[in-house]
Write a structure and sequence with these properties.
The structure holds 2 protein chains of 2 kinds.
Chain A: H1 17-20, E1 25-26, E2 33-36, E3 46-47, E4 54-55, E5 60-63, E6 72-73, E7 78-87, E8 95-103, H2 124-133, H3 146-150, H4 152-155, E9 160-165, H5 174-181, H6 183-197, E10 201-207, H7 211-221, E11 227-232, H8 241-249, E12 264-268, H9 269-281, E13 287-293, E14 301-306, H10 311-317, E15 327-330, E16 337-338, E17 352-356, H11 358-361, H12 374-378, H13 385-393, H14 397-402, H15 413-417, H16 424-488
Parallel strand pairs in A: 1-14, 9-10, 9-12, 10-11, 13-17
Antiparallel strand pairs in A: 2-8, 3-5, 4-7, 5-6, 7-8, 13-14, 15-16, 15-17
Helix pairs in contact in A: 2-6, 5-7, 6-9, 13-16
Chain B: H1 18-40, H2 42-65, H3 78-88, H4 96-111, H5 124-135, H6 137-140, E1 143-144, H7 157-165, E2 174-176, H8 179-188, H9 193-196, H10 203-208, H11 220-232, H12 239-258, H13 266-271, H14 275-282, H15 293-313, H16 320-337
Antiparallel strand pairs in B: 1-2
Helix pairs in contact in B: 1-2, 1-3, 1-11, 2-3, 2-4, 2-7, 3-4, 3-5, 4-5, 5-16, 11-14, 12-14, 12-15, 15-16
The chains are: A alpha/beta, B mainly alpha.
Chain lengths: 489, 358
């Protein structure tokens, strides 16, 4: 397949070999599982169990809290200890409602819905419903509810389901291992998703630095006429949805549009495997493969962890910390988020737990910008980071917005390459957050203004009506008195 | 928990740093500098040391006066590079005060009065050179015949001290002209360019550097080698050097074809004067050149065009320094008007149309 060039990008040190050659190992059940109600983009799930309840593996614990939401299921059998606030696996460290499950060690399955033996004969909407009920979200880290994304086919004509196996983040090999060890499940899931989307074709894109995955997946896909496997260049951020679509089709997704507008929907490889489990076996999403790596981890490897296991459980299972880490990151080193604590749970979007040493993070004091322009050259979004950051430092967010700070995907390439070690993406994330907050405020002010105006209008109307009524009454009274006067006269 | 939670990612960083960048540029200058030190002898070595030393002193003084920390500004190599490039653009036997004054112009006026590293609009080394050139035209155009170290007629260490710090004039070697200067003077006497050029060393000798000129402008080939190193190490990109030299070469070739008696040819423009030094080391100065690639093409074209105009029509034989400064002034405007296209948007910033949408 002919590939197309993508602007900019970087070639970081990938350091994937630390975990790429060891098979996925299941984490032994920890003493307790902590299941946040919000493991996805959208509304939090609503608990359907109470403290003290006995639950079985796969049983629904919390149902979707809205149209864009995802349910949460029990990763094993046991007792609900409590539903309480607990630190979220988010840099803010803010608490969120969490279901705490104490495993009974039996790991007994609940009665599951029967799997479909031939999903390609089922109604596409019933497949979407199964995916929704299984609580599947984008497992590459975006955590957008997959069923919502699978309904794009109902409004738009789609040509291709693009399965994202680029895994361009350094260190991470969980997708690589899933592709190598569960190629059939993944391809089956992808074909089911394509069917649900109404897309006739599946393209699986894998970065060229994963030759084993490429050959295994190609072999497994050979028997499927509508599945094509493509090797894409190892160029960060190839795994970015819009950039991957550009590499495959040469088409650039217009700003404020979706790749679906070009007829392409992108899903992650681990999501495809989860769809296979949900549709063929009726199993909800209750575990995921997590890459535990970084120079501070004694025995880096890929772990299949039940959702809700603590990060500290995973690190302990991987031999603990050999040296104190400089940073502990949730996700990859480029776009991952710093963890506020090790006592936070693995959630649906946790692709990696990295304990990085100071040598690996290579942090230095920020120096003045020397305008080398490398950030401009490598920005995959065609932005001018040097100029945007200068405006943001002066709190001139409007100017930064005009330069397109909202088109930044926060891939981190500019910060990574900057010789002056300026935390450019930190500025951009700040600006995007502030701009969103300002927008919300502006909308709120607008709403309040409308309400106040409406209120005033009503008051005026009431006052006018009152005045009119009073005037009418007065006129009537006067008329009455005139008549009476006349009568007297 | 010992890990830090104070900033967003990435949590990995390329092995890049300002000092590494500067060190690479300095390394690229070393071969040409060593050759020139040998070619012009002790007085040139003194001039070089005084110029670079003065720049370091001025930097330290400015940092102290503005209450800024001395490190890393003093040791990151940026001010050494400024001094080095300034020295490369001075006459090899310039007396001590020329280097010192140049450092004042370059570091104090051009750099620190604008806010220090990264803030200056004009290339500090070129401000230093041009300020000296217009203030002291005699000293700045007193070229010497080459007198390699150890050769007959080369000044000894003590004689060199006299040249640099005393008032030794009329030394044997004084009084040569640079190639560009010679051609220009001859032309003003009515000698056509193609005739006077025949009295110059041939192009190969000029490229090798065996001729008179500024300290750093003579050994064109070694400068070119340094420039290629910078390209290979991706410190600079091809855009500025190619558009600059391309413009100069095309203008020279076209006009000399039209009137060989009036205009020097393209190859002559490339190997004489500071073309290579300017194209690879001066015009590519990060701070004072545009940040986008398309902007750099425009900038390089502008420097090439202005250099050719000044060399051909203006009073000064060499125009690179003026051309660079003039284009420096345009850099903010170029950066404002020429930006890359944002992904998914037109150059005007509107979202791209969807296929099928009209």
């Amino acid at each position: 397949m002919k590939l197309f060039t993508v602007r900019g990008g970087i070639h970081p040190e990938y350091r994937k070999e630390r975990t790429s050659e060891s098979a996925i190992v299941a984490l032994p059940l920890p003493a307790a599982l902590y299941l946040p109600l919000q493991q996805h983009i959208g509304a939090p799930a609503e608990p359907v169990v109470e403290a003290g309840a006995l639950v079985k593996k796969g049983q629904l614990l919390a149902r979707a809290g809205g149209a864009v939401s995802a349910p949460v299921h029990a990763p094993t059998s046991g007792r609900i200890a409590s539903i309480a606030e607990m630190t979220a696996p988010h840099p803010s460290g803010l608490p969120q409602m969490t279901i705490i499950l104490e495993p009974d060690g039996k790991d007994e399955w609940a009665e599951l819905p029967l799997g479909l033996s031939d999903p390609f004969k089922a109604d596409p909407s019933s497949i979407r419903q199964r995916v929704a009920e299984a609580g599947i979200v984008g497992m590459g880290g975006a955590t957008f509810p997959s069923a919502v994304k699978l309904s794009l086919g109902t409004e738009k004509k789609l040509d291709v389901l693009l399965l994202n196996g680029a895994e361009c983040e350094p260190y991470l090999t969980c997708d690589d291992r899933v592709m190598r060890e569960f190629a059939e499940e993944m391809i089956d899931g992808a074909r089911i998703m394509a069917y649900a989307l109404g897309a006739p074709k599946v393209v699986i894109a894998i970065e060229e630095n994963k030759p084993q995955a490429l050959s295994i997946v190609s072999e497994a896909a050979a028997i499927q006429p509508n599945v094509e496997v493509v090797s894409v260049p190892a160029q960060y951020p190839m795994g970015s949805e819009r950039h991957l679509v550009q590499a495959i089709t040469g088409e650039e997704t217009p700003a404020r549009k979706l790749t679906a507008d070009l007829g392409i929907v992108v899903h992650n490889v681990a999501t495809a495997r989860a769809v296979h489990h949900a549709v063929r076996h009726g199993r909800p999403l209750t575990s995921r493969v997590v890459t535990v790596s970084g120079g501070a981890i004694a025995k880096p490897q890929n772990v299949e962890a039940p959702l809700g296991a603590l990060v500290s459980d995973l690190i302990e299972f991987c031999g603990g910390l050999s040296v104190p880490p400089r940073r502990v990151v949730n996700g990859g080193p480029m776009m991952g988020q710093p963890l506020p604590s090790l006592d936070v749970p693995v959630v649906k979007g946790t692709s990696g737990i990295l304990a990085l040493t100071a040598a690996e993070t290579n942090e230095h004091a920020t120096q003045p910008c020397i305008r080398c322009g490398t950030c401009v050259t490598i920005c995959p979004c065609g932005l001018v980071p040097v100029e945007m950051s200068a405006f943001i430092r002066k709190e001139n967010l409007d100017a930064a917005a005009r330069l397109g700070v909202r088109d930044c995907v926060s891939c981190g390439s500019c910060s990574y390459i900057c010789p002056a070690h300026i935390p450019l993406v930190h500025y951009f994330n700040y600006a995007k957050g502030r701009l969103n907050a300002l927008d919300r405020e502006a909308r709120k002010t607008d709403q309040i203004r409308q309400l106040v105006e409406g209120h005033n209008e009503r008051l005026e109307k009431q006052a006018a009506a009152k005045a009119a009524a009073a005037a009418a009454a007065k006129a009537a009274a006067e008329a009455q008195s005139t008549i009476e006067n006349r009568g007297e006269a | 928990m010992t890990a830090f939670n104070d900033k967003s990612g990435p949590f990995t960083h390329a092995p890049t740093s300002v000092s590494l960048t500067m060190a690479t540029v300095l390394a690229a200058l070393v071969p040409a500098t060593l050759f020139d030190a040998w070619l012009f002898g002790w007085p040139a070595i003194f001039m070089f040391v005084i110029t670079v030393g003065s720049c370091l002193l001025m930097e330290a003084g400015c940092l102290i006066l503005s209450n800024k920390p001395l490190q890393p500004s003093l040791s990151d190599g940026s001010v050494v590079l400024t001094g080095w490039l300034l020295a490369m653009s001075l006459p090899p036997w310039a007396p001590w005060w020329v280097g010192l004054l140049g450092a004042v112009f370059a570091v104090v006026l051009a750099k620190h009065l604008f806010g220090g590293i990264g803030q200056n609009v004009f290339n500090p080394a070129m401000v230093g050179r041009v300020a000296l050139l217009v203030s002291f035209p005699l000293q700045m155009t007193s070229w010497v015949k080459t007198a390699p170290l150890g050769s007959e007629g080369a000044p000894s260490f003590t004689q060199a001290l006299g040249i640099t710090f005393g008032h030794v004039t009329g030394f044997d070697a004084m009084g040569a002209a640079s190639a560009l200067g010679y051609v220009k003077t001859e032309l003003s006497r009515g000698v056509p360019v193609n005739v006077s050029a025949q009295h110059l060393p041939d192009l190969m000798d000029m490229a090798l550097g065996m001729h008179s000129g500024s300290f750093g402008e003579t050994s064109a080939l070694l400068i070119l080698a340094g420039g290629l190193l910078l390209l290979a190490r991706r410190i600079i990109s091809w855009h500025i050097p190619v558009s600059l030299m391309g413009t100069l070469f095309v203008l020279g070739t076209v006009f000399s074809a039209i009137d060989p008696g009036r205009y020097a040819d393209g190859m002559f423009h490339l190997v004489s004067g500071a073309t290579f030094l300017g194209a690879f080391f001066i015009a590519t100065d990060y701070v004072t050149s545009p940040v986008s690639k398309r902007g750099q093409l425009v900038y390089g074209f502008g420097v090439g065009l202005l250099t050719w105009i000044i060399r051909t029509f203006a009073g000064y034989p060499e125009g690179m320094a003026f051309a660079v400064l003039l284009m420096n002034a345009l850099t903010p405007i170029i950066d404002h008007h020429i930006r890359p296209r944002v992904f998914g948007r037109t150059y005007k910033g509107e979202p791209l149309p969807l296929k099928g949408d009209k």
